[in-house]
Amino acid sequence: MTETSTEGTPAEVSLREITAETVVIICRLSETLVEPQKRMVAPNAISIAQAHFSKHAWFRAIYADEEAVGFIMLYDNPDEPTYFLWRLMVAAPHQGKGYGRKAIEHLIEYVKTRPRATELLVSCGQGEGSPEGFYQALGFRRNGQMEGEEVVLSLLL
Questions:
Q1: Residue 7: pLDDT band by 50, 70, 90 thresholds?
Q2: Distance (Å, whole) CA 36 – CA 5
Q3: Cα–Cα distance between 39 and 129 in angstroms, integer?
Q4: pLDDT in tens, 70-108
Q5: Per-residue pLDDT for 37 more than 90?
Q6: Euclidean distance between CA atoms 56 and 71, whole angstroms
Q7: What is the dihedral of CA 56, 70, 154, 146, to 10 degrees?
Q8: What residue ranges do the domains of the chain occupy?
Q9: How far apart are CA 153 and CA 157, in angstroms?
Q10: Is the pTM above the cut of 0.85?
């Protein structure tokens, strides 16, 4: 699937630092989600707050060209070979355009540059609204573990 901007040309997807000027925009993206998606991912405001209290959080806004379309957060501990995709959120109007896929591809490339990185994990809820199929299409596979009530998937790097 090719991501397309509003003009019909391929959109450039990038991961950018969230700044004082962009934080409100990124937080408001969560308001576009509908049930049951709202139950599958924490609001971006909560994620950003959690990130500021974790020394291992690496987080970015997802942009398609110059428009903010989502949020991504990684548990990034260079002392461990396993990295964890902590959060991924793409605003409802931008879903199905390939932006989430491209963001994950950028994230995988970033993780491959990290010390000792051998595996990227993600957990997700099951049932209606679950992103499990999305992750499986990217090569993630169930590894038999659970994180609370969420299934854990693994991608070997």
A1: low
A2: 27
A3: 8
A4: 999 999 999 999 999 999 999 999 999 999 999 999 999
A5: no
A6: 17
A7: 80
A8: 13-156
A9: 13
A10: yes
C-alpha torsion sign, points 54, 148, 111, 9: negative
Tokens (6 digits) for 106: 């950028």
| 18-23 contacts at long range (C-beta below 8 A, 24 or more positions apart) | 18/48, 18/59, 18/60, 18/61, 22/61, 22/68, 23/48
pLDDT at site 40: 87
Q: Please identify which residue in the block is written with the tokens 């139950």.
A: 39
Structure tokens, 27:
């937080």
Q: How far is CA 54 from CA 35, 73, 86, 90, 99, in A?
A: 28, 11, 12, 22, 26
Q: Decide yes or no: CATH 3.40.50.670 for domain 13-156.
A: no
